[in-house]
Amino acid sequence: MTVRVILVSPDIGTASRDARFDGGAEPEEAAEALVRRARGLAGALPAADRQLCGPSPGCRTTAEALGLLARTEPALGDWDMGRWRGRRLDEVSAEEPEGVAEWLTAPAAAPHGGESLLDLCGRVGAWLEGLPGEGGRVVAVAGPAVVRAAVVQALGLPAEGFWRLDVVPLTATELSGRSGRWNLRCGSPLIP
Fold first, then answer.
1. Model-level pTM?
2. Would you tell me how many other CB atoms lie within 10 Å of the CB of residue 187?
3. Considering only CA atoms, which of 46, 21, 155 is closest in space to residue 100?
4. Per-residue model confidence as pLDDT tens for the chain (192 residues)
């Protein structure tokens, strides 16, 4: 049975623009603007048998603003960046240049003490591969790293391919598959 998975990345906030590892809460004014943008796209997604979201506040807020009655799915959680969480990439690079270099080049490395890239891809891939037996359509709001990991796993790309994928906020990345074979439609804009 074919399953169609539509992954929507939440709108970016200052954390993403600042290249911050899982930056946490936005300033109130910025958060309100992000919610307004997502609300403007409510109704843009097709009906789904399952509506899910990652556990982060950004994913939950975006799902709600899009009008989804999404259930939180732990497997769609953001990439665990360990002790780098909340810090800017330039700060960490200045303090731990070898660790950042290793993180960017060795998929099994986790110098931050959190998940390695291979761990992230494995977690998201296990979730994705568990879906086809159920069939139907799934709409899920998930962070950019989770969407990238899903594409890597679905297409059987080497883990290093993760770094070559960009996920545009508030767009749909669609995977459809059956019997372990996935097809991809990238970056479809959400149109109200």
1. 0.91
2. 12
3. 21
4. 789 999 999 876 545 556 778 655 554 555 677 788 888 888 889 999 999 999 998 899 999 999 999 999 999 999 999 999 989 999 999 999 999 999 999 999 999 999 999 999 999 999 998 886 768 999 999 999 999 999 999 999 999 999 999 998 899 999 998 767 899 998 788 887
